[in-house]
Amino acid sequence: MYTPKRSLTALVAFVMFFFMVDKPLRAQEEEGHPDELAATGAMSSPRMHHAHEESHAHMAAHMKWSTPRPKTPADEQRAEEITKILRASLEKYRDHRIAEQEGFKPFLPQFPQPMYHFTNYWQGFKAAFSFDPARPTSLLYKKTAAGYELIGAMYTAPKRMSQEKLNERVPLSIAPWHAHVNLCFPPRGTDPKTVDWTRFGFRGSIATEEECTQAGGRFWPQLFGWMIHVYPFEEAAEKVWRQ
User: Fold this and answer.
1) Sequence-ordered list of residues with C-beta below 8 angstroms from that of 151, at least 6 positions apart, any chain
2) 18 lies in a domain?
3) pLDDT (tens digit, 9 = 90+) per residue, 10-32?
4) Quick one: which of 112, 148, 215, 219 could link to 141 by a disulfide (CB 3.0–4.6 Å)?
5) Does residue 7 belong to any structural domain of this protein?
6) In which domain, by residue range, is 186 found?
7) Which of 182, 129, 181 is nearest to 156 (CA)?
8) Contacts 24+ apart (CB under 8 A), 162-165
9) Is residue 127 part of a domain?
10) pLDDT (tens digit, 9 = 90+) per residue, 140-186?
11) 97 occurs within a structural domain
12) CA-to-CA distance for 182 and 199, rounded, in angstroms?
């Protein structure tokens, strides 16, 4: 039966689904499909690690960066302000359990990763429309023997956002925003252990739709929106904004 409440709930769900910048449409289905998990590069196996090492040179073909600008005193001041605000807002999240209680969900925690993203999808949704330095889309953790160590955060922005708008959020002279582009994933249902990861995925050699089609894969011109990492607990500015 139709009710205004149900209609509003459906509308909110649709809007969040459409605008989410840190979790693309296909990623909504990843948790139930091992082949999709492997395609993200998060699934760990000796063969995949070897493929990643061998194909590291191809990674540049799958990255898009914002255009750098000359640094100004105003940009440096803005960066310092962002760092200060972020550092203060992250203190309580040194305990990852508090982060989870407040809506930050670990992405693929069951698979070994050099850095784990704990993502708050509601904050990611709001980041599509406004920028709040105190509310990053994701928290960045490093796995330790005792649990997780907080090392930084990630801001996100929609694919459609102009460089001028990105610059208003975090100055392009301070650090580049990046996006993952020209990605070819293997056909759905493929056993990850049989995939040639020197060709597919984030570090694969396939970087055009034509090549991907010939290989029987699924091509993504851009996966996710714009992203930028910040490590506010570092002392040196170049380490705070390393990408």
Assistant:
1) 115, 140, 141, 142, 231, 233
2) no
3) 333 333 333 333 343 333 333 32
4) 148
5) no
6) 23-240
7) 129
8) 163/66, 163/67
9) yes
10) 999 999 899 999 999 999 999 999 999 999 999 999 999 999 999 99
11) yes
12) 12
Q: Whole-model pTM?
A: 0.76
Query: Exposed, middle or buried: residue 40 (CB in 10 Å: 0-12, 13-18, 19+)?
Result: buried
Both tokens assigned to 83: 């760092």
The answer, yes or no, to whether residue 235 has pLDDT greater than 80, is yes
Return the half-sphere exposure (C-beta side, CA atoms, 13 A cut-off) of residue 189. 1
Q: Domain count for the chain, please give it.
A: 1
Q: Return the pLDDT at 128.
A: 95
Residue 218 CB coordination number (10 Å): 17
The token duo for 140 is 């960045």
Question: Residues 195, 204: contact at Cβ < 8 Å?
Answer: no
Q: How far apart are CA 23 and CA 123, in angstroms?
A: 12
